[in-house]
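Researcher: Next sequence.
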Amino acid sequence: MLRHELQPGKLVIGAALILAGVLYAGDAGGAWETPWFVAIPLVTGGLCLAGAVAFLTSRIRRRRTAGRTTADGAGPDMAT
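Model: Next structure:
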């Protein structure tokens, strides 16, 4: 199986959108009452959190890859 890069920002926003969908599906099914304005802070909060997570993980990855190239002795300008 091919491996892919983990993208935690997409995981966070996916979870927030699934939660919003489940809340409104439960409301439509009659299980509980969900006010119409619940989706706005849930989705915008999920987007902000996903952006922060994506920013932090990109900074961590950039720092790790920069440390590897200098530790190996073969930096980007040393490659032929």
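Model: The mean pLDDT is 87. The CA atoms of residues 13 and 47 lie 6 Å apart.
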